[in-house]
Amino acid sequence: MLMTPEKEPFFVGTYFPKHSWLGRPGLMDLLQRAVDLWETDRGRLRQTGRDVVRQVVSGMRQASRGQINFGVLTAAFRHLENMYDQAYGGFGMRPKFPRPHDLMFLLRYYARTRREDALSMVEGTLRGMWRGGIYDHLGFGFSRYSTDQRWLIPCSRFGFNRIAFRPARSRFPQSAAAGGAAKGAADGSNSISAFGQNQAADAADKGEDN
Known about the structure:
The chain is mainly α. It has helices at residues 27-40, 42-61, 70-83, 100-113, 116-131, 167-183, 185-205, and strands at residues 2-3, 9-11, 142-143, 160-161. The chain is 55% helix and 4% strand. The protein has a two-stranded antiparallel sheet with strand order 1-2.
């Protein structure tokens, strides 16, 4: 993120190589370009920063308040259902992130509705994760994400990391995947299913199905 001295951002981006390569702008080149623009067109950069801040603040003020009704939950479920990869689990194509918050939502939705398709999306995602290369079958832990659709090619930038997610959000996907891998593919499927149902039952016991 590049900002003015007033901390107003005028450029944001991720995953830049050090130098421009294969058509991708490099960080060193971007920084030099920013220096040049700051010297020759400073007013435009400042105006861009002010516009960005105004848009962000405006969006935050427009956030509505109130109760979340069941229709909102169903809409969220439908959204995940449309994104779900029936072949390999997970959501979307590539790169693929484990997204534990989505899996936790689906378990709670299952606890509330007993819809098997919600639970099967969790099982299918976990099964794809521990069968693929995103999961370290020797040292355990997960890579931060998979660069392909099938969970086979882990992100080499970060390596395997047991704490790629915040612990409170990663307990169930990591435990289920590790348990399934230890028992083998066939037993692992049953282990994941039982784990997911236990998590959903626990959510129901805590009143999350009300």
